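If you are new to this repository, start here. Below is one unmodified record pulled from the training split, so you can see the exact layout before writing a loader.
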Amino acid sequence: MSDGQGQGRHDPIYQFFTQSHKITSEAQFIIDLFPNTDLAAVERIVHQLIANRTILHSFNDPSDTTSIEDIEELLTFVNGFLLPLENFLAHPPPAPSAHLPRIHTGLPGRPRYDIDLQ
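And here is the target side for that same chain:
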């Protein structure tokens, strides 16, 4: 490995883009799991994407070759993930068995359901 390649991996901009890629990959994974996803996971990834967007908005490094158009495309890309995630948080799906009557046994584990089969 040459010095140029090793130096790039320690560059803060390279690190930011590497982490951004990981965050957006995880966001896509969570979106693909809708509606069977954990609300806490959605909240966490939304916070990470908002932080990512904030950094992109304040991106002003004269040594970097990333153009304003590239930054705008990245912001659009991040916003594309935020829209369905924030919509999911605003309108979470109901619990799958919330409408079924339950029998409370006082024991740990899954509740027993009272289902009338007639």
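Two things worth knowing about this chain: The chain has a mean pLDDT of 86. The CA atoms of residues 62 and 68 lie 12 Å apart.
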